[in-house]
Amino acid sequence: KVLRTLRNHWKKTTFGVCLLSWGGNWLYGKHCDNLLRRAACQEAQAFGNQLIPSSMPLKKATVFLNPAACKGKARNLFEKNAAPILHLSGLDVTVVKTDYEGQAKKLLELMENTDLIIIAGGDGTVQEVITGLLRRADEAVFSKIPIGFIPLGKTCTLSHTLYPETTNQVQHITNAALAILKGETVPLDVLQIKGEKEQPVFAVTGLRWGSYRDAGVKVSKYWYLGPLKTKAAHFFSTFKDWPQKHQAALLYLGPTERPPEEPEEKLSRPPLYVRLYRRLRLYWSSPPKEIPQEVTPEDWEEVNVSTIELSIATRNRQLDLMRTEDFMDICIEADTVSKGQFVDRGSQKMRDPLLCPEGSQCIQASRCILQLPEGTEGFFGIDNEEHEAMPVEVKLLPRKLRFFCDPQMREQMLRAAVQ
């Protein structure tokens, strides 16, 4: 009777089987996520159970959380996956939630001493925090504080450098939180982008200016087209004046040699009699004569730019811990692109925004000045955040900040550098 009933109502049977299969798969996924959280919490508890001297204070960690990231889901993701790990580790955690865009910059100006800075959000949150940090008057001291990044935003470019690739969001977040506890750090370059009047903006990924960036911003407007929305956004953007050329003048300086890394260990303080002897010797000795040093003129090179898109990027994506020169990559793409190539390449640019295709002019520079013609409209994309296009000076700050990373990723970087 059961088989006969299922055969007679085969549509309802098919729908029920599909629904039960989907529900079972969903429940199994939730169970696997709970197992990942439990394992991460047990690993974090091992750090919290370590004995410390009574005279040593707890490490203070300040978390800057952007609840609006990931379409408003960032707060829930942080509280379920990252917050228990941080609290179980024995850190003195202070969570600062931002309410509006740009608030993190102002909060960084008021931040007191802390041992760790943790950014919980996406690329925009990272840019706000490091900009507020490096705008401080005492940035030389605060820039030495290690920074942790918990990827919660829609775009988290930096996470591809710091953590292993995974398709499971829960595992990705827990790996990032555990990497902070393990203490391994890598130095990352920072770009200082300064306009004529405004305060400088700092970026860890790069700057984009061109047609691919403008079309990529409009992809979300075509959500109703599903998987075709990316091609549709780039196709409709070709209805404007074609070819789309961006004119500018670029002045740049070549790469600079990397100085030796300073030792982290502090030298012991000399005895009192040695310090007194040195002060007396300096007091009675005659002041040394200053020898004028010849200032060598900077060798600027100039390029007239006519491109469909220009990008200025750090080397943080292909991080090389052993390289001997510091530079940023400038990619000037050719302006002779057909509409079909533009649509196809636009899809590639959505996956890798800083892709430099064949036929592009690639320049390695430590500093550059981008001069735009008067009346130029449009926007820059600085770490995937929009800023008004204007003449800017971009300066590389090599190894300016230290970010926590997964120990396996650091070993891979060192192994690749040796090979």
Please, what is the CATH homologous superfamily of the largest domain? Answer: Probable inorganic polyphosphate/atp-NAD kinase, domain 1
The termini sit apart by: 70 Å
What share of the residues lie within helices?
Answer: 25-40%
Overall geometric form = flat
Which runs of at least 5 residues are low in confidence (pLDDT < 50)? none
Mean pLDDT: 86
Question: What is the architecture of the largest domain at the second tier of CATH?
Answer: 3-Layer(aba) Sandwich
Provide the spatial order of strands within the biggest beta sheet: 6-5-18-15-8-10
Number of domains: 2
Radius of gyration: 26 Å
Which structural category do the helix and sheet elements fall into?
alpha+beta
Strand tally is: 18
Summarize the main sheet. 6 strands, antiparallel
CATH topology call of the largest domain: Rossmann fold
Number of helices: 14
The amount of beta strand, in percent, is 15-25%
Q: Give the class-level CATH name of the largest domain.
A: Alpha Beta
Question: What would you note in describing this structure?
Answer:
The chain is α+β, with helices and mostly antiparallel strands and 419 residues long. The chain has 2 domains: 17-48 and 56-183, Rossmann fold, CATH 3.40.50; 206-259 and 295-400, Tumour Suppressor Smad4, CATH 2.60.200.40. 38% of the residues lie in helices and 24% in strands. It has 14 helices and 18 strands. The protein has helices spanning 2-8, 10-48, 69-72, 74-88, 103-110, 123-134, 139-142, 159-162, 169-182, 211-217, 229-237, 272-284, 339-351, 407-418, and strands at residues 60-65, 92-97, 116-121, 147-151, 185-194, 201-203, 206-210, 246-253, 256-257, 301-307, 309-313, 325-326, 328-332, 361-365, 367-371, 379-382, 385-388, 392-404. The strands form 4 sheets. It has a 6-stranded antiparallel β-sheet. The protein has a 6-stranded antiparallel β-sheet with strand order 14-13-11-7-16-17. It has a 4-stranded parallel β-sheet with strand order 2-1-3-4, with helices on both faces. Strand 16 (379-382) and strand 17 form a beta hairpin. Helix 5 (103-110) runs parallel beside helix 6 (123-134), helix 10 packs across helix 11 and helix 10 (211-217) crosses helix 13 (339-351). It is flat. It starts with a helix and ends with a helix. The model has no long low-confidence stretch (mean pLDDT 86). It is found in: Mitochondrion inner membrane; Mitochondrion intermembrane space. InterPro entries: AGK_C (IPR045579), ATP-NAD_kinase_N (IPR017438), Diacylglycerol_kinase_cat_dom (IPR001206), Lipid_Phosphate_FormReg (IPR050187), NAD/diacylglycerol_kinase_sf (IPR016064).
